[in-house]
């Protein structure tokens, strides 16, 4: 057990030492990023000095607008490049799937569409036949069944209950069932 305790104590000590080293490395990286940011800002953004006259101020505004336009154009160009590369990546990954033989099925949505609309979508202007499926069905008249006649003849439900109450009513129901 002493060996186990020593091994766990050593593991704990090594773990804490590694965490301390990682914490100091993170602090160094943060400091390096901050100095890099300060250097970049000092290089690309000179300190602003506001001129006293109105004309000089207008010229400064024009220069700033020109810089904003160039930066905006660069941003737009990089966005377009990014979109193109993303599209190329998608195409290449699709080709890779095709080469492997694994086809990724796209998620399909249910669409309610009549037969006419479906044929029109598939065939385009060539479709002229009307596919009304209900038009060719037979029309059948409902026949009055005996049950429906009995229901109509019943009339007042109270009379029906009085007739079927007692032993005589049970006897009538039993005979009617036969």
TrEMBL record:
GO terms for cellular component: troponin complex. One of its GO terms (molecular function) is actin binding. InterPro entries: Troponin, Troponin_I, Troponin_sf. Keywords: Acetylation, Actin-binding, Coiled coil, Muscle protein. One of its GO terms (biological process) is skeletal muscle contraction. It holds the Pfam family Troponin. Residues 14-102 form a coiled coil. Belongs to the troponin I family. Troponin I is the inhibitory subunit of troponin, the thin filament regulatory complex which confers calcium-sensitivity to striated muscle actomyosin ATPase activity. Binds to actin and tropomyosin. PANTHER family: TROPONIN I (PTHR13738), TROPONIN I, FAST SKELETAL MUSCLE (PTHR13738:SF15). This is Troponin I, fast skeletal muscle. The gene is Tnni2.
């Amino acid at each position: 057990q002493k060996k186990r305790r020593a091994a766990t104590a050593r593991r704990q000590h090594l773990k804490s030492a590694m965490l301390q080293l990682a914490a100091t490395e993170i602090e160094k990286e943060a400091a390096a990023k901050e100095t890099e940011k300060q250097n970049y800002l000092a290089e690309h953004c000179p300190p602003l000095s506001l001129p006293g006259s109105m004309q000089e101020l207008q010229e400064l505004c024009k220069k700033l607008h020109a810089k904003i336009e160039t930066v905006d154009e660069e941003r737009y160009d990089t966005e377009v490049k990014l979109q193109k590369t993303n599209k190329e990546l998608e195409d290449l990954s699709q080709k890779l799937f095709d080469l492997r033989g694994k086809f990724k099925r796209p998620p399909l949505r249910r669409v309610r569409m009549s037969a006419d609309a479906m044929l029109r979508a598939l065939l385009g202007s060539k479709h002229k036949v009307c596919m009304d499926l209900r038009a060719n069905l037979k029309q059948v008249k409902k026949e009055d069944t005996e049950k429906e006649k009995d229901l109509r003849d019943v009339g007042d439900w109270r009379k029906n209950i009085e007739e079927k109450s007692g032993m005589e009513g049970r006897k009538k129901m039993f005979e009617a069932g036969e």
